[in-house]
Amino acid sequence: MQFEGGAYYPAAICLGGSGQMVVPRSTARCWTSLATRRSAGGRRQLVGGGASHDGDADRRRRQGSIRVLIESAEARNAGAWWKLSPSSTARPSVQINNLTPGGTLRICHAGGLPGARGAWHIPITANTLTTITYTYQTAMSAQESWRHTYFGTTANSGDAADNHDYDRDGFTNAEEYAAGTNPVQRGDFFRANNPQRGPGTFSVSTAGKAGRAYILERSVTMAAGTWSTVDTEGPLAADGPVTLTDAASPSGAAFYRIRVTGP
Questions:
Q1: Which of 82, 147, 204, 248 is spaced 20 to 30 A from 183 at the CA atom?
Q2: How far is it, in rounded angstroms, from Cα 97 to Cα 91?
Q3: Does 187 fall in a domain?
Q4: Is 72 in contact with 135 (CB distance < 8 Å)?
Q5: pLDDT digits (tens, 9 = 90+) for 163-212
Q6: Is 186 within a domain?
């Protein structure tokens, strides 16, 4: 301890005297045996035997802590961070202490991931650790979004598995996705309709689906590498009939197929 303007002592007791001696540097723990009173200025002072010390116990009792956990690992790896205004310090998943009530939490968008919220008020409670978990939603692929629409999940498993034929119409979920058809509605599946062949021409139609492109291909042997594109339509802006035509169909035997591409 140090008496103001004087020497340092390992311990000190002030007895009597006409004035108080102020011990400017100490901790509240050093004064547990002394009486405590509140000064006129609102601060808490520790007094005894003519010595006084401004304590920080009240201030500590009014403070709280906050822990922010950012999920997922993809978001953290992309550099997601948060700030507690008015501080400008950017932090990853971390805990900070000695906070007074109030403050505005801001989450940074990371790597184009969706879901980051701009800002919101965070209640800081005295002597309490407030934990907030913020989860970025990983962007779904087109096929995951399709699964979620029809099966309520993005997982390639169970009813939503690629190799499963949920509606028992002879087409797997993967085939229905490729064709843009409804995997839970029997009867809605890809069909090649009304094939027509005339002198030097061949045409075929199908029920087109939005977002899909339809390519008519021809081969005279069906061997790998022998298919050639003869007509294309799409990607379609909306569902509607599609007619594909080979305007130079050979006079001999030929094989045709429709290839469907999508998102």
A1: 204
A2: 13
A3: no
A4: yes
A5: 999 999 999 999 999 999 999 999 899 999 999 999 999 999 999 999 99
A6: no
The 10 Å CB-count burial string (b at 16+, else e) for 140-161 is eeebbebbeebbeebeeeeebb
- What is the count of structural domains for the chain? 4
Is residue 60 a contact partner of residue 33, using CB atoms and an 8 Å limit? no
Q: What is the pLDDT of residue 14?
A: 54
Low-confidence stretches of the chain (pLDDT beneath 50): 20-56
Same domain, 36 and 74: no
pLDDT at position 116:
58
Q: Is residue 184 part of a domain?
A: no
Q: Are residues 55 and 68 in the same domain?
A: no
The owner of tokens 């996705």 is 177
86 Cβ contact partners less than 8 Å away, ≥ 6 residues apart: none
Residue 158 is predicted with a pLDDT of 94
- Per the rule left: phi > 0, alpha: psi between -120 and 50, beta: everything else, 200 is left
User: What is the reported pLDDT for 202?
Assistant: 97
258: which strand partners?
A: 216
Q: How far apart are CA 80 and CA 113, in angstroms?
A: 9
